[in-house]
Amino acid sequence: MVIALFFLFGLIIGSFLNVCITRIPEGLSIVSPGSRCPQCETPIKAYDNVPVLAWLWLRGKCRACGHPISSMYPAIELLTGFLFVACFLTFGLQPETFKWLFFVSLMVILIVTDFRARILPDAVNFFGFGLGLALSVRLGPIDPACLRIVDRFPILARNPSILGVTCAVLGAAAGSLLLLAAATLYKLVRGREGMGMGDVKMMLMVGTFLGIQGTFLTLLFGTLLGSIVGLLLVVVLFLTGWKSKVAERASRKGLGSVSGLRWTISSRYQLPLGTFLGIAALLVVFFSRWIDMQAYRFMR
For 293-298, which contacts have Cβ atoms below 8 Å and span 24 or more sequence positions? Predict the structure, then answer.
């Protein structure tokens, strides 16, 4: 029964996340107006706004104009429902669980908006940063890496609230500054932007929830996953002849061989780093207890 309630709650929240995903990048209010068809702007009735089921009985189309409704909407609702269940199964029914429900919701928004629009909205990142700091007063991201630092300052370790906020701030600083340094170094070496500041702000927020250890693991897994997927994508684009006509026109102008130009164009395809960092952050959340256990064993 509890699992079913978490799943249903996740479906409802997922419906709201769809609103955030589609409106926040456009600078629109997530409160007003109510849900409406993106084509004819007809308000959607309450009975046509039931998560997942409404999309099924409407056969993925607007009741008023018949315009197709993206399958992204039920997919996000189902994903959020399953993630909420995963939070309950991982952490049980305790205050910490609700902290991760907030975090999971923020990650879903960022993962999808970066994938769809190549943007990580400040409204989400800064709201998450403030929320993470507020929650750290009672539910701080205290991990072995943070404890090793604060052990040198006994005054910090005496008060759980101060300790939690300190670990959150250290996590935020670790993630954002490390990514900022990597972006600066990439620009100096390659002479062009390698990532946007949105990724840096995202890691600022992630650090307040995950702390130092979780933040480093997010960067490690996220960049590794992005590199693997990116390399595979470049190879696929090259083999399938992506932008081949552009390469042929450039070759006729004496800019190089067709195959060489096609490889150069394919290798310049930009992947949304924030999407991979968000996926990695979720993996860290759900495997955090196992990771902490291994870390404590290593520290001894």
Answer: 295/143, 295/144, 295/145, 295/213, 296/144
**Rounded Cα distance, 257 and 250, in Å:** 9
Q: Which amino acid is at 199?
A: D
Strand partners, 202: none
Residues 162 and 132 sit within 8 Å (Cβ to Cβ): no
**pLDDT tens digit at each of 300 positions of the chain:** 899 999 999 999 999 999 999 999 988 888 887 788 777 878 888 777 888 988 888 888 888 888 888 899 999 999 999 999 999 999 999 999 999 999 999 999 999 999 999 999 999 999 999 999 999 999 988 888 888 887 787 777 778 888 899 999 999 999 999 988 888 887 787 766 767 789 999 999 999 999 999 999 999 999 999 989 988 988 888 888 878 887 888 888 887 887 888 888 877 777 888 999 999 999 999 987 776 666 556 555
For the chain, the structural domain boundaries read 139-300
Can you tell me which residue has the tokens 């205290």?
142
